[in-house]
Specification:
By secondary structure, this protein is mainly alpha-helical. It is built from 7 helices and no strands. Helices cover 78% and strands 0% of the residues. Helix 1 crosses helix 4 and helix 3 crosses helix 4.
């Protein structure tokens, strides 16, 4: 049985609306939501394509999801698609955040507000962890294999989380190492 052809956005408006809805769902982190919507529901990308694009989005300057929206928009509609997806990620959420800032200024001292914000942080961390576990399956197709990728991930966690090394140095070091290993593996 042949796999169905991948879907794609119908228009720039579809990109704008889709990324606006994604952005509005994901305060504090949208990786889990973006992966589910783009890969599983809309089928604009395969799991492997998503992992590859997400890796590129992470090393580019700026917010990862904004970078990903630019890449997806550009993939289907060029510069105007990239700008439509970017506008979807930023326009309505900016207005919501400005309104929330006005409300927060009035109620910042209330203990219930502080508790709610701590709870939202825990939920966001859980969503990111769950998505990480879901994306582990894509490592089977990685040229380095699951063991090397896991070792690099643990080294990254130790360097940043435990040793508190600067992210830029860890990215240069481990990113350079993993790129070199992958290049050699693919070349062989």
């Amino acid at each position: 049985m042949a796999t169905p052809a991948p879907a794609q956005p119908r228009s720039r408006t579809d990109l704008f609306v889709s990324f606006t809805l994604l952005a509005l769902q994901g305060f504090g982190g949208v990786l889990a939501i973006v992966q589910r919507e783009i890969v599983e529901k809309k089928r604009w990308m395969t799991q492997e394509e998503f992992v590859e694009e997400w890796a590129v989005a992470q090393i580019m300057p700026g917010p990862n999801v904004v970078n990903l929206s630019l890449m997806i928009g550009g993939r289907y509609f060029g510069l105007t698609g990239a700008l439509s997806a970017l506008a979807g990620m930023l326009l309505v959420p900016l207005l919501v955040v400005l309104c929330l800032a006005l409300v927060y200024a009035q109620f910042a001292e209330h203990p219930g507000v502080a508790g709610a914000l701590r709870g939202m942080g825990a939920v966001a961390a859980g969503l990111i962890a769950a998505t990480g576990f879901r994306l582990l399956g894509a490592l089977k197709a990685n040229p380095l294999g699951v063991r090397v990728c896991t070792a690099l991930g643990l080294a990254c966690f130790a360097a940043i989380g435990l040793l508190h090394w600067p992210l830029s140095w860890v990215l240069l070091g481990l990113g350079g190492l993993s790129s070199t290993l992958t290049y050699r593996k693919l070349k062989a």
